[in-house]
Amino acid sequence: MTDMPDPAAAPAPAPEIASLSFEAAMGELETIVRRLESGDVSLEESVALYERGHALRAHCEARLAAAQARIEQVGFGADGRPAGTTPFGES
């Protein structure tokens, strides 16, 4: 026998991370950091919060990378040159 918590007694799961906006994920991550820094959580809860925080951080990084890729697409034309500009010497 192990001292495992009863899954039926676990709190309701938080919203799926993939469906969160960048701002919502960052807000939740900030809340997790504050809770962990407070030291007022049990070891088990700390581990769970850390795991969720890690997943939220990865989600935020992916959202930022996707936004950067979109910005780079908008900023360059099909020929690879910056859109809306002409190199010196060309008219």
SSE blueprint:
Blueprint: H1 22-38, H2 43-75
Structure description:
The protein is an all-alpha fold. The protein has a domain at 20-75: Helix Hairpins (Orthogonal Bundle), CATH 1.10.287. Mean pLDDT is 80; it is low at 1-13. The chain contains two helices and no strands.
Question: Notable features of this structure?
Answer:
91 residues, 2 helices, mainly alpha, 55% helix
- What general outline do the C-alpha atoms trace? rod-shaped
Low-confidence stretches: 1-13
Q: What fraction of residues sit in β-strands?
A: under 5%
Number of helices: 2
Which structural class fits the helix and strand makeup? mainly alpha
The profile of the biggest β sheet is: none
Q: Residue share in helices?
A: 40-55%
Mean pLDDT: 80
Reported CATH architecture of the domain at 20-75: Orthogonal Bundle
- The separation of the N and C termini measures 79 Å
CATH fold group of the domain at 20-75: Helix Hairpins
Per CATH, the class of the domain at 20-75 reads Mainly Alpha
Count of beta strands: 0
Q: What is the helix/strand order?
A: HH
Radius of gyration: 22 Å
